[in-house]
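[[Local backbone shapes]]
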Amino acid sequence: MAQELSEKELLKMEVEQLKKEVKNPRALISKTGKEIKEYVEAEAGNDPLLKGIPEDKNPFKEKGGCLIS
């Protein structure tokens, strides 16, 4: 689709997109970074990648071994 548009049309679309983006509320990284860190630390106990999955609830546990004779 972009190949069918002229350079002027592409630039106009880019300007329109930038006008939309400039309206987005911004937050300081010093504030949001702290909030993200606190959230991650609070949820770390529920993260199966950090604490592991109990063997009885692991859907990927091997059901049986392979026997070569």
The chain has a mean pLDDT of 88. The longest helix spans residues 7-22. Helices lie at 7-22, 29-43, 48-51.
